[in-house]
Amino acid sequence: MGWAQRTGYSDVRQPQPELELDELYRELILDHYKSPRHHTKLAHADVVAEGYNPVCGDEVEMELVFAGDTLAEIGVIGRGCSISQASGSMMSEVVQGKDIAEIRRLSGEFTRMMTEPDGTAPADLGDLEALQGAAKFAARVKCATLAWHTLADGIAQHEKGDGVVRREEA
Q1: Reduced DSSP (H G I as helix, E B as strand, rest coil) percent helix, strand, coil of the chain, to 5
Q2: Contacts of residue 13, Cβ cutoff 8 Å, sequence gap at least 6
Q3: What is the topology classification, in CATH, of domain 15-168?
Q4: pLDDT score of 6 more than 70
């Protein structure tokens, strides 16, 4: 009789829910990276916002169309790591059609999720929950939040009546 039989343990590895969830999140991030949503130039953008992280080279350009205080359309084009590009894609799905106050609330929730990694991810962040694992790595937090900072700059420019803004992360 082997050890596994004597102790009641099986030698067959049981699936671990945490590992399955990590794998699902990896696949979700890669899906958004390889097939980004709202990855388009808009014909008549009200605001163009650019974000750049010189530490890792991530870049994002956002074109925004507003209908009053509602983000009617968003186009997100960028280059960089899978985290930064997936974050921009996921963010675009969550914020399009929302008003500025709701976008700011969602941005605050996402920022808390990324800066307080022991907390629970809010349910209304959709696919963005997949990025919670990146919160354990300070350098990856900047990758994940670049699109959100760029969007915040674009909203500020919209509120001031300006059309172009460039952000450089430090």
Answers
A1: 55, 20, 30
A2: none
A3: Sufe protein. Chain: A (3.90.1010)
A4: no
